[in-house]
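so the lab meeting is tmrw and i was supposed to have these ready like two days ago... anyway. pasting both below. for each one the top line is the aa sequence and the line under it is the structure tokens. i havent really looked at them closely yet so no promises
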Amino acid sequence: MKNWRLVLLVTLLAACVVDADPTKPALPTATTTTEGTIAPSAPVPSITPPASAPVLPTEPAPQSDSFLSGIQNSLPNDWTLTVITETGKMGHPHGLEEPVFRIDFTDQTRTFITSATELHPYLRLYFYRINDKEKILGIIQQESIYSWDIPTYFAETKEYIIVTSPLYINHGIYTEEAIALFTPLEQALKDYFAACTPTPMQHTSSMGVVESDWHIQQIPVAFQGEWRLQNPDGSPLPDDYKNLVFRLAQLPTDCRILRVENGTLKEAGTMWFASLEGATLKVDFVGQFHLTMGLEIQQKNGQIQGTFNHAGSGAAFYSGAVTLIPYNR
């Protein structure tokens, strides 16, 4: 019986040796959860849920750490954030489902007083897939008739539509003091989210101001010029198209569809989309015609050939192979 202390000591030493095995993962130095508060100077944790949290098979990975780091770096002094991703713990405004993830913001260094109670400035944001934007905006409109926990639009990025609720802005308190403490955070976040969302390019033509989606800065030299369209066998296109001239200028802002009228060229459309995929130039025009006119062309056998489409919104007026020939004034 005198040796029981020796046996216990040997057992404990053996356990320490096992735990020191370098092939085993290090034990955490602190308990971690998906709801840990992150100080602005702290590293951004992954927002991947723990293995025990149920995740739908079709659920995309949450936004990258760089996105969260950008949010964290944009926070005004003394504001901290909490990232929540665990299904069943995120909650949602009335009428919506749980988001991809939720972020709570708070400033523990400042308070405002309401009904003799001190509260910290606070904001809760829900992040939904941008693909669900139209559905969510519809729900926001439907829910606006209610007065409790209704969803409201906050901002959006190229990947997320971001929703909050009046209840989750300063705990639903809208005194001048509370709003003054909240406003710097609101502005900082909206500025950051706006920077994450490419602003649509715009250009002005006789068609008015047109939002443009140009993936190239210049039209390749081989495609530049003023072109008419004909069938590959040399026959003209139907009457609606045989008088059209496609001006592919060096700069996308100068590209137009023109119509020959009494020997002169009149502007009929402007180019809103342009991309170069391999050797194929893709351009789409909008203007004084119903639906979009588009070309997908490339150089073949010393000619510019491809397809022409007058289509959109589920309808098609014309689609077929074409050859581009120079327009001679």
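ok protien two:
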Amino acid sequence: MPFHACRRSIFQSVALLALLIGAPACTVFNATPSYVAPAANLPTLPGVGTADVGFSIGSNGAEVQAAVAPTTNILLTGQVHNYRADAGRDAFWSYEGGFGTYAWRPSGVLLACYMGTGAGGGRAEGYTSRYGFGSSGDSVGRASRTRFTSQYVLPMIGWRSPSGVLEGAVGLKVSAVQFSRLQLTETRSDQRYVADSLGFGSYQTFRTTEFTDRSGSTRAHVQVVSSLSAEVAPRLRLTGRFGVDLDASSNLKPFEVRPLIITLGLTCRLGKAYQLDRRPPQIRYW
């Protein structure tokens, strides 16, 4: 198969997979979230003097991710994350920065590990009703307000095809998220028919509110993410990510995190990357 036809086929396959899986993933989780995690940054830079800048969108919102290799085996990363849903009632943001080391093996396998820190916050509001939106029944309104800092470590393993068209990676991100603000509110409304002594009556609403303040708590998050990118034009790559983020420390139902991560975006490779993509990585091997 010609190179340009192979590249077109890869592009179409990844785009179709994102539409079939990614679109439903944005709506299957109806609980009011208290935290929406950014996708792990999994750079596969070919060598010193190269950089990646990418934009992606998916089930956990929109992200801008960047990575640069300023020296041999040294890697710097950064990203900005924004999530909005339900006409702005759910809104979360965060930013992260990190550094670490990487090395390509002669077999074309990348070994890397880096760590970093971040900060963010957000809010969410949700509504559920046992009987839909009728004139009677129970309804529950939930709201969360959060602000946090985080520290993480991320080991990863990557690979690249001999031609440089395909690149992939798998990473394990372990984070400690410290919440300076974690306030959860649940309001239950029960509509009942109340009749007087003559038999006449009307529906009345009875409300109870439960407020939980867990500010100062720390929660451990474990995220497993895989990525696959394909070159669609010189210096431009189509990148997809798939993974899960789990709260390993506590169960906050119905204020859980958004667990599923499915993103699709474009990555621009800068520096010497275009030349390095056409020959083995020119770096020192372990």
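from a quick look at the 2nd one: Confidence is low (pLDDT under 50) at residues 13-30, 129-136, 273-286. Helices lie at 3-25, 273-276. will dig more after coffe
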